[in-house]
Amino acid sequence: MTNAGIVDPVFAVSAESLPSLPGVAFEVIRLVEEEEVDLDKIVATVGRDPTLAGRLLKLSNSPLFGRTHGVTSINQALMLLGLKTVKMATISFSLGAALGGGAAAEGRGEEFRGFWRRSVTSAVAARQLVCSQRPDLEDEAFLCGLLQDIGFATMLHCGCPGGGFSPRAIDAGHPEPAAEQAALDGYTHADVSAQVLESWGLPAVLCQPVRHHHDPDGLDANASGETTQLTRVLNLAHDVATIVTSAASRGPALKAARDKAGRWCGMDAPAFDAFLEGLTEDVHEMAGLMEVDVGSRDDMAAMMARAQEDMLAMAVGATRELEQTQSRFEELRTKAETDGLTGIRNRAAFDELVAEQWEQRVSGAAQTPIGLIMSDVDNFKVFNDTFGHQAGDEVLRHVAKTLEKASRSGVDIVCRYGGEEFVVVTPGAGYEELEAIAERLRAAVAEMGVATADQGILRVTSSFGAAWLETIPEGMTTSHLLAVADRNLYLAKAAGRNRCVVSSYD
What we know:
The N and C termini lie far apart (84 Å). It contains 24 helices and seven strands. It is α+β, with helices and mostly antiparallel strands and 506 residues long.
């Protein structure tokens, strides 16, 4: 289909067969848009259609406009509603006649009921969604919401074949786009809807949102703010209609609607839930004014109740999913920072932890000394060659546990540095305390025995080199302190092993 009304014969909708508004409706629209509006002419024109006049009176007395009876004349109704609302309402109330009424729907009542159910729900939802940000667009939002799916009704009205336009498909949020385009030779029901509006002479600010209500990103980059706002609202209103009309598609629509309501309308989850709760009554109020069948209040209320249950389940599910994700993240992080052989922190964890301790002191967040102790199992290569790697691994596991047990619980940080080397971070320890910790660690390893099945009790010793720093000079890094600790470890080994060498950083 094109904007010029040339329609592909695949789905047999021609410009001549598009639904037309009654003459009275066209006349009202023309009069409202004149530069010098003549209220008397509008009143007289509306009076020629008693059904339209009655509906406008009902609308002006409706709770939707905060009124409970009192408006008794078309003149009063026009003054209360305003010309723009009268124009939009006239089009809305004329839809039944435009689609041919009951004759055209003969044998297809459920299909048209599905159309009205979605359309009125979308219209009311769109009007309420836009009012908090752009109350000046309420009438446009309502009309666009009502007409965004008129392409379906047009094809039903014209007796178009198949295309997946079943009541179930329409209520479920429409056929799959690919199937729809295949049936309509590359076009969609939104294209048909937009052409109907264009054939009625409606402005682009209404036609473009309808054409793009399933694809807000497809709007022209130069589209006006009003067009963009209406297109997004229609897209969200479509999801809302799916929530309250389709059990099968409710879950995905609910998730999408909540996200869009937050991004586009500034509505948090509680506000969106409250919005949905109040929708049923307003939809049936408007359906009554339009004298269209949207199904029973009970059915719609039940659907809404199930939607509320789904929202609660989603909230609980999201919380559980977040907890599971966080738990899994912690598991992965722990695994990444844990040495697979000894079960203590690994080199990567040491690098991160010592960097954190360093930053605290550089920034002034911590004003205490810091010490590093490096240890190395003495003659470990010879031990491995003599007793085997399995015995060597068991010794390393015992050394790791012994170092953790002999260090200050909850304060010192013990890590495997690599091979048979271990490192201990001692935050806040004074110089003498660092000496005492290093000696306690050395003695604990020397006293340790590793029981084996075939080689009896195995024993090893370790050498220790420690470096202490009271305050961090400008420009100094952790590598400088590590270098001092490593130098002292070398000195301990050179002096005969199984001993400690401790010094402060000079």
